[in-house]
Write a structure and sequence with these properties.
330 residues, alpha/beta, TIM Barrel, eight-stranded parallel barrel, two-stranded antiparallel sheet, 46% helix, 15% strand, binds 1,3-dihydroxyacetonephosphate, lyase, Aldolase_TIM, fructose-bisphosphate aldolase, FBA_I
Length: 330
């Protein structure tokens, strides 16, 4: 039997973190298009090969979150991506939610889909080599009206049902209730909403008897909204992020991984470094690491442009960013 707690803890191996490369077809198409890169299944495969088969990524990565399409694709070396990752001691994971739709009760908010056929899909992903999974919920801040308690609670219930199903299937759940950066809100509001959201999520997880010791939390940092006109210092971000987590996250979780959420690569790296420094100062109880998508990928996509002749240069930029993010863990 797989030891779920050991698997979850191994995602926090010293100096290592998680690459999120689990963009859906829709999101991957948008990301590639924003760099002028043509799309289609083959370009998405090359995009994943660029990142996953860059030489030396195993120094920095404990795991990679994949999209279902990638789980069944082969790299340029003709090996299936999940198998070649596992051969380098990088755990393959899988995004299992099916995206978020507007809520009928509150149409400006979102509820994540994907519970109906989850057990069947988990059995397939497990056979394909996945060891852990991810479910993302999105929580929007808007003035005094959003998020509504209903949006937080309904998303928490689905996160808990997902986590329970996943543990039953013998896989590790990453729960990602992402409080979005988008908006005019202050950092104090972000901190309050993160605290409220995570508090609700962990109390609903408890009601569903989810084993917290094999749960990984993936969360946003507490930042001023992207349209607030305010730029936070890394020390401010670290203080408010850790304060929110201290109030809401049980010490028993396997660890906490931060998403980048639309920050620049430098911002996300500097803010992570400040969070890690402060976590040591205040003796925070959980292992911490990164689980970035955009902050790890954007510079490489900019250099790659979808062209074979740019692969080596794009990989060099990707590895340099990984090295910087990983060293911020020390
Ligand atoms: P970002 O780091 O780009 O926010 O992505 C993380 C992620 O996995 C979103 O679901």
């Amino acid at each position: 039997m797989i030891d779920l707690v050991a698997t979850a803890r191994a995602l926090f191996a010293h100096g290592k973190g998680i690459l999120a490369a689990d963009e859906s077809v829709h999101t991957a198409t948008e990301r590639l298009a924003s760099h002028g890169i043509p799309t289609g299944e083959e370009m998405r495969r090359q995009f994943r090969d660029l990142l996953l088969n860059a030489e030396g990524v195993e120094q920095y990565l404990s795991g990679v979150i994949l999209f279902s399409e990638t789980l069944a694709q082969k790299g340029n070396d003709k090996n299936l991506f999940p198998l070649s990752l596992a051969a380098r001691n990088i755990m393959p994971g899988i995004k299992v939610d099916l995206g978020a739709d507007p809520m009928s009760e509150s149409p400006d908010e979102f509820i994540t889909q994907g519970l109906l056929d989850l057990p069947e899909r988990l059995a397939v992903y497990k056979k394909q080599g996945a060891l852990f999974t991810k479910w993302r919920a999105v929580i929007r801040i808007e003035g005094d009206t959003l998020p509504t308690p209903t949006a937080i609670h309904e998303n928490a219930k689905r996160l808990a049902s997902y986590a329970k199903e996943v543990q039953t299937a013998g896989l590790v759940p990453i729960i990602e209730p992402e409080v979005l950066l988008l908006g005019k809100h202050s950092r104090a509001e972000a901190r309050a909403v993160i605290t409220r959201t995570l508090g609700t999520v962990f109390s609903v997880l408890e009601e569903h008897s989810v084993d917290r010791a094999s749960v990984v939390l993936k969360t946003a940092m507490a930042l001023s909204g992207s349209e607030s006109g305010k730029k936070d210092t890394p020390e401010e971000v670290a203080e408010d992020t850790l304060a929110a987590l201290a109030e809401s996250v049980p010490r028993q979780v396997a660890g906490i991984a931060f998403l980048s959420g639309g920050q620049t690569a430098d911002q996300a790296t500097d803010n992570l470094a400040a969070i890690i420094r402060r976590a040591k100062d205040v003796s925070a109880p959980w292992p911490l690491t990164f689980s970035f998508a955009r902050a790890l990928q954007d510079e490489a996509l900019f250099v790659w442009k979808g062209k074979e002749e740019n692969v080596a240069a794009a990989r060099a930029v990707f590895l340099a960013r990984l090295a910087a993010v990983s060293s911020s863990l020390n």
